[in-house]
Amino acid sequence: MKPAHGVWALILFLIIAHQDIWFWDDTTLVFGFLPIALAYHACISLAAAFTWYLATRFCWPSDQAPSAQGRDTA
Question: With 72 labelled, which of 32, 43, 54, 61 sits at a CA distance of 20 to 30 A?
Answer without folding.
Answer: 61
